[in-house]
Amino acid sequence: MVLKIGLDFHGVISAQPDKFALFCKKIRQLGVAVYVISGGPKSDIIKYLDRYGIEYDQVWAILDDCEKNGTVSFYDDGSFQVPTEIWDKAKAEYCAKEGIDFHVDDSAIYGRYFVTPYCHYDIKQGCCRLNNRVEINFNSPEAAAVKIAEFLQKSCSD
């Protein structure tokens, strides 16, 4: 069984790209697949990840998915609109569908829809808390990777 972690792009990876490059490299070495999950668009995210040397296994974007499903409206000024409920639930639904074992995101709003363990990231502190119990400090990227990999191995074997 492959363990999977979801990482939000805007406000998580983009907040500390150098640290997340180290984190992603280490966690993948520990056998955990990295799914970058974002609002999008996917092509912009991939360019950014490649520019910073951030390793990943999959990239998924709400905007691209909504475009494929016909739930987005585009306007002449380049803006777009997705119904709020669809947008807010999209990451949680994707994680459940793809069997993501752990997700890190900076949005408290999205967290209420998750069945996947959800670690709310604090951009100022550089860490996240899982259910207000387990704290992951990404200021030490390699240690964070080890802690999450151990947590996943334990929780997925229970």
Please supply descriptive tags for the structure shown above.
158 residues, alpha/beta, Rossmann fold, 42% helix
Can I get a quick summary?
With 158 residues, this protein is an alpha/beta fold. It has a single domain (3-157), classed as HAD superfamily/HAD-like (Rossmann fold), CATH 3.40.50.1000.
Would you kindly provide a written description of the structure presented here, covering whatever features stand out?
This protein is an alpha/beta fold. The chain has a single domain, classed as HAD superfamily/HAD-like (Rossmann fold), CATH 3.40.50.1000. Helices cover 42% and strands 24% of the residues. It contains 6 helices and 9 strands, in the order βαβαβαββαβαβββα. Strands 3-2-1-6-7-8-9 form a 7-stranded mixed beta sheet. Strands 4-5 form a two-stranded antiparallel sheet. Strand 1, helix 1 and strand 2 form a beta-alpha-beta unit. Helix 1 crosses helix 6. The longest helix is centred in the C-terminal third of the chain and has 17 residues. The model has no long low-confidence stretch (mean pLDDT 92).
* SS-derived structural category: alpha/beta
Give the averaged pLDDT, no decimals. 92
Through-space gap between termini: 14 Å
Question: Roughly how much helix do the residues carry, as a percent range?
Answer: 40-55%
Number of helices: 6
Radius of gyration: 15 Å
CATH top level is Alpha Beta
Enter the CATH topology name.
Answer: Rossmann fold
Tell me, what's the shape?
Answer: globular
CATH superfamily: HAD superfamily/HAD-like
pLDDT under 50 segments (min length 5)? none
